[in-house]
């Protein structure tokens, strides 16, 4: 019995010393920044009011689309994105700068099974729904994209203008 307890204690000690790896999503410290404030805003506060904006994902005649694909908000406005995947394949919605999304798209090409369920990103199965609560704290032009390999290239991106 003492041998078994010693083995269990040894395994527990080793496991506590090894850093956790998140898979198939991001490893700790990789991927999207979850700082309180990014170049394109910050996670919303569920205790505060938000404007509801519906975004639909779909495929049509070989193209992949967001409807709408152009959104306009005021600086400081909090948005509750209600997301619906009406398509036949998985899609995701990732809010960021164009540069960040294009860089992350390259990472996704290397790891196509990476899934997002971050404050600024959500992956949805066909016919599924989800939400993102986001506050746009800075003026500028930002991007939303599906970063699953081939999807952005098939037209699945849009523009957010914050005034």
Rounded to an integer, what's the Rg over CA atoms?
19 Å
> What's the CATH first level?
Mainly Beta
Helix content: 10-25%
Percent of residues in β-strands: 35-45%
Strand order within the widest sheet? 4-11-10-6-8-7
Mean pLDDT: 82
Number of strands: 11
Question: How does CATH name the architecture?
Answer: Sandwich
Give the terminus-to-terminus CA distance. 68 Å
How many domains in all?
Answer: 1
Major sheet details: 6 strands, mixed
Query: What structural class results from the helix and strand content?
Result: alpha+beta
Overall geometry: globular
CATH T-level fold name: Immunoglobulin-like
Put simply, the count of helices is 2
Pick out the low-confidence regions. 3-35
Pfam families: Copper-bind
Keywords: Copper, Metal-binding, Signal
GO molecular function: copper ion binding; electron transfer activity
List keywords for this structure.
single chain; 163 residues; alpha+beta; Immunoglobulin-like; 6-stranded mixed beta sheet; 5-stranded mixed beta sheet; 2 helices; globular; disordered N terminus; copper ion binding; Cu_oxidase_CS; BlueCu_1; copper; metal-binding
